[in-house]
Amino acid sequence: MNTSNYLDKLAELAEKVEAFFRRSTMIALTALAVIAGGLTGLVLSYQLSFTSFAAEVDALQDYRPAEITKVYADDGKTVIGELSLERRIPLTYDQLPENLKKAIMAIEDTRFFSHLGIDPYRLAGAVVQSVTRGTRAKGTSTLTQQLARELYLSKERSYIRKVKEAIYALQIERVYTKEQIFTLYC
Q1: What is the C-alpha to C-alpha distance for residues 60 and 177, in angstroms, rounded to an integer?
Q2: 3-state secondary structure 31-62
Q3: Cα–Cα distances in Å, from 172 out to 46, 64, 144, 145, 161?
Q4: Closest CA to 179 of 95, 58, 121, 66
Q5: What is the residue range of 155's domain?
Q6: Distances 182 to 13, 121, 176 between C-alpha atoms, Å
Q7: Same domain, 97 and 174
Q8: Same-domain status, 122 and 177
Q9: What would the pLDDT profile of 166-176 be if each residue is shown by its tens digit?
Q10: What is the pLDDT of residue 186?
């Protein structure tokens, strides 16, 4: 083999390797910039909305679910009727039956006592399902996210609502104990 021919091929290979690394570096830097920009956007939006969400979450301390209206006889003691759309009787966490607690957590949120309002495992599973199947995952909301949706948000299915739900959940978890959250959920 001719030395000149060998050097030409070696130079051509070096150019290809250099082009590959240049392209790979640009792709990696672009990906890092997109990820950094996305994370910055998430942090900023969280910080900007932090105060408005926090004020609404603090109002949960005054939350009183609709209760039964009792109609009493003239003696003031005898109940002659009850009126309500729902038959609610407020209970504390300790008054809730253990089997009810276990059933709700088994069905709705098995890691309720170990996450901060958002379950990263469920979130990762939802992202994988969304990417691989092209469908939105169902059942990804934690108990705290479901509580936030019921108290503050509409039932619409959108990514914006999901982000708001997550922010509310983080705020609720910051202010209330797990037992208080579970009781409000029930």
Answers
A1: 13
A2: HHHHHHHHHHHHHHHHHHHHHHHHHHHHHHHH
A3: 14, 16, 7, 9, 16
A4: 95
A5: 91-186
A6: 64, 20, 10
A7: yes
A8: yes
A9: 888 888 888 88
A10: 85
